[in-house]
Design goal:
CATH superfamily of the largest domain: 3-Deoxy-D-manno-octulosonic-acid transferase, N-terminal domain
Number of helices: 20
Strand order of the largest sheet: 3-2-1-4-5-6-7
CATH architecture of the largest domain: 3-Layer(aba) Sandwich
Number of strands: 14
Number of domains: 2
Structural class: alpha/beta
Shape: elongated
Distance between the termini: 33 Å
Helix content: 40-55%
Radius of gyration: 23 Å
Length: 415
């Protein structure tokens, strides 16, 4: 064990109040239920079902989306209970209905041991990152089989290679999103690392209500349409100005606009001076003279990705880190984003390299790009590339399951 790891473990042993305080502040900031903070201290709020239990740790929304189908497939095949832990409230909200959820324990002795004593997992699956020394060492010491899936490029591995190698050596299975990450892991001595593809590309795309899809399709057929999805305040002015440019270039152009948070709809409407707007929350459909249809409802991004051949994903022109490009890509919608895509860097790298996505730096560039692409052969080429590369990634889940099956078969059956 490296000096850095010994120091971290020692610090959390002799001064557990500090991580507890920091965790409490984070829990409060994310507006999570106050009573559920005890879960972070290793005090379970749910009973453990009898039989085998598969534990998946996914830090936040993106990691949950990447692993939820994998976890459910594995649990169903094994007849096991599935437990997800997350670090964030957003991640908790993305856990499928019917699946157990707890907030992950902080990396102190009492919290980690309390969590493991109660849940007694047979298999622990960590998604992409968020690796904590005591959790891994305690779980491994109890004979829990461990897997790291969908590993991505990591600055931490480059900054502290010996410490990360010591942690990664605890995993029985390590899968990487691509060959670049596989090589990075193997260079650290993790010979078992295998590139199997990106689980985010393999995740099922968001669904859409068939009736709503049919109704909107009838009202917008024949019009130049694009979508702006999961936008944040930093994106709003850029999208509004971009659509003005698009309307000048394409008669009858329609923007389907879904803010990340529907409560932003009023502020968004305020940026659309002189533009005809309809709102989905009011039960309105776009009229023939509607310029912007505000989709200020939850859970309908799948509808927009199916309707729009071109989607601008928000979060890339501000500090949010971008949003998952695989969702529109899997539904054949070409992707645009601002440059700030740190949360989905690998997906954007793959999609831009394949010609399925483009990065824009400003509202002016967004407007020019959308205006140039709508109705063009270039857009159809981008859409075909998006569907093709997303289909290529769809095998990642099956390949990962194949590697995980032996771990579960070898895990002890526990009551």
């Amino acid at each position: 064990m490296t000096l850095l790891l010994r120091g971290l473990l020692g610090l959390t042993r002799i001064a557990p109040a500090l991580p507890r305080h920091l965790a409490l502040r984070a829990h409060q900031r994310m507006d999570a239920a106050p009573e559920r903070f005890l879960e972070r201290l290793g005090r379970a709020s749910l009973a453990r079902p009898e039989g085998r239990l598969i534990w998946v740790h996914a830090a936040s929304v993106g990691e949950v989306v990447a692993a939820r189908d994998l976890g459910q497939d594995l649990a169903r095949e094994a007849g096991a209970t599935l437990l997800f832990t997350t670090s964030t409230q957003g991640g908790a909200g993305a856990v499928p209905k019917g699946v157990l959820h707890q907030f992950a324990p902080i990396d102190t002795v009492d919290a980690v041991r309390g969590f493991l004593d109660h849940w007694r997992p047979d298999l622990g699956i960590f998604v992409e990152a968020d690796l904590w020394p005591r959790v891994l060492l305690e779980a491994k010491g109890r004979g829990v089989r461990l897997a790291l899936v969908n590993a991505r490029a990591s600055r931490t591995r480059r900054r502290a290679p010996r410490s990360m190698a010591a942690l990664l050596s605890r995993f029985d299975v390590v899968t990487a999103q691509d060959a670049v990450v596989e090589r990075e892991l193997r260079d650290l001595g993790i010979a078992r690392a295998q590139a199997v593809g990106d689980l985010r590309a393999a995740a099922e795309p968001p669904g859409a209500d068939p009736d709503a899809l049919a109704a909107l399709t009838d009202t917008i057929t024949g019009r130049p349409v694009w979508a702006a999805v999961s936008t944040h305040p930093a994106d709003e002015e850029a999208v509004a100005s971009a659509h003005c440019a698009v309307m000048a270039a394409h008669q009858g152009a329609l923007l389907l606009w879904a803010p990340r948070h529907p409560a932003r709809a009023e502020a968004v409407a305020g940026t659309l001076k002189g533009i005809r707007v309809t709102r989905r929350s009011l039960g309105e459909l776009p009229a023939s003279n509607t310029d912007v249809h505000l989709v200020d409802t939850l859970g309908e991004t799948g509808l927009l990705f199916r309707l729009a051949p071109l989607t601008f994903l928000g979060g890339g022109l501000g500090p949010e880190g971008g949003h998952n490009p695989w969702e529109p890509a899997r539904l054949g919608s070409a992707v645009l984003s601002g440059p700030g895509v740190a949360n989905h860097r690998d997906g954007f790298r793959q999609l831009t390299a394949a010609g399925a996505a483009r990065i824009v730096e400003s509202g002016a560039e967004l407007g020019l790009t959308v205006a140039d692409l709508l109705g063009s052969a270039d857009l159809e080429t981008m859409r075909a590339a998006a569907a093709r590369i997303a289909a290529e990634g769809s095998g990642a889940r099956a390949r990962t399951l194949e590697l995980l099956h032996p771990l579960l078969a070898g895990a002890g059956k526990r009551a």
